[in-house]
């Protein structure tokens, strides 16, 4: 992706949305040439913006029992969302980070492949789980997470992300799973 397209806001509270948009940093050619990385770390460091996005995502969890956060910034968002929503939280980790693994899934990224693991004994069959991540790009990470949770017997109620990179078509990888995005680029 080249250039820096204007982001579209899909939620109210325009003043906070503008603040969030101003905090997102475009990093060209990272992690490889031709990729425009959207760094949301400054959003997480801003108390007002972080509170607003956590509250907004928590409102989307519905009747979920758990919020699953995808490594690494998804962990931070998911933990905050779970606290606001009054649910538990489960981390979906990169391969090799868990002592007990319920399942693994390898998937394609826009710049390579990766593997995610689900911790053993945390997601019970029938649990209603809402998935949270920072950015939805090609959808491989979110789709792999949904597959891991489904294989564990969970009912994935939706996926919520701070930002969707719409041009990369990631939402198509989620099929019928509801996708909620706060910002679109």
Largest sheet: 8 strands, mixed
Tell how many strands the DSSP assignment holds: 10
Q: What is the domain total for the residues? A: 1
Q: What is the CATH class designation?
A: Alpha Beta
The helical percent reads: 25-40%
Strand order across the biggest sheet?
Answer: 1-10-9-8-4-5-7-6
Compact summary:
The chain is built from 5 helices and 10 strands. It has helices at 14-23, 41-45, 47-58, 73-85, 140-151; strands at 8-9, 25-28, 36-39, 66-70, 88-94, 101-109, 112-119, 128-136, 155-164, 179-184.
Outline the fold blueprint.
Elements: E1 8-9, H1 14-23, E2 25-28, E3 36-39, H2 41-45, H3 47-58, E4 66-70, H4 73-85, E5 88-94, E6 101-109, E7 112-119, E8 128-136, H5 140-151, E9 155-164, E10 179-184
Parallel strand pairs: 4-5, 4-8, 8-9, 9-10
Antiparallel strand pairs: 1-10, 2-3, 5-7, 6-7
């Amino acid at each position: 992706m080249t250039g820096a397209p204007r982001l579209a806001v899909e939620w109210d509270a325009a003043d906070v949305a503008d603040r969030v948009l101003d905090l997102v940093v475009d990093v060209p050619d990272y992690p490889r040439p031709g990729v425009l990385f959207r760094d949301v770390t400054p959003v997480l460091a801003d108390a007002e913006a972080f509170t607003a996005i956590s509250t907004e995502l928590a409102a989307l969890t519905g009747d979920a029992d758990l919020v699953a956060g995808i490594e690494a910034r998804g962990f931070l968002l998911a933990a905050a969302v779970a606290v606001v929503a009054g649910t538990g939280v489960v981390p979906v980790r990169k391969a090799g980070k868990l002592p007990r693994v319920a399942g693994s899934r390898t998937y394609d990224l826009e710049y390579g492949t990766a593997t995610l693991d689900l911790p053993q004994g945390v997601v019970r069959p029938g649990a209603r789980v809402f998935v949270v991540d920072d950015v939805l790009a090609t959808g491989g990470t979110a789709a792999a997470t949904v597959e891991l949770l489904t294989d564990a017997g969970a009912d994935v109620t939706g996926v919520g992300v701070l930002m969707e990179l719409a041009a990369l078509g990631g939402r198509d990888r989620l099929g019928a799973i509801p996708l909620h995005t706060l910002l679109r680029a």
